Amino acid sequence: MSQEPRRPLPVEIAVQDAAGARIALDGGAARIELCLALGLGGLTPSAGLIEASAELAAERGVSDFVHALIRPRGGGFVYDPEERHEIVRDIRLAVRLGADGVVVGALDETGRLDLDAIAEFRDAAGDADVTVHRAVDAAADLLAAVAALAELGVRRVLSSGGGSDCRAGLPMLERMVRTAEGRLEIMAGGGVRIEDIPALAAAGVDAVHLSARGRALRGGASGPGGGVHGFDETDAALVEAAVAAASAARD
């Protein structure tokens, strides 16, 4: 009996605008992490951006594509009650606007995952997918975090394996995959380059995540109040190369 061909390794692209969503879709990405301010690690996207991206996916007949990062500020991941309430409200809004999933995370003062907060976020998401972001890489015990999240019923976790990037964290990513035992998807992220994808696939991860960014200098002068000149944009060639590498890694 012939074996069915293996499915390509899914690629998730972090994008900051509607053009990035379109480029990721055209390039064959499985989904997007929709956010703003990638230079800060990503913040909650605007309502208009979520709605526009969801409409684009619907027009193309693509499901499970738009996953909105819900993070109210930069800095650490210990949130006070007001911030948690804001996150819950943003989760509900993102889902109402058409997001297929949300990307969240929280730690407590001891450096462990704040499972109570994450359970609250999961409940606010309803039937939408829940991904726990790289807050997990700041957790005191990554393997314990994986086991706890699997029990909590979230869909996936984005991680560099606790390293400064996915290359440094590769051995831990392999251990995380074994700990998850298929109960939780392990998505590798953190400085992912095209040439890293075969090793990540060999480690058994369920998906790879990258921003595939280039620098745009268009848009005119920023002026005294507009910050630095230029802005990041999604690079179509990098998206296509990542998707091709992920597909080849599973051949």
From TrEMBL:
<protein>
    <recommendedName>
        <fullName>PF03932 family protein CutC</fullName>
    </recommendedName>
</protein>
<dbReference type="Pfam" id="PF03932">
    <property type="entry name" value="CutC"/>
</dbReference>
<comment type="similarity">
    <text>Belongs to the CutC family.</text>
</comment>
<dbReference type="InterPro" id="IPR036822">
    <property type="entry name" value="CutC-like_dom_sf"/>
</dbReference>
<dbReference type="InterPro" id="IPR005627">
    <property type="entry name" value="CutC-like"/>
</dbReference>
<keyword id="KW-0963">Cytoplasm</keyword>
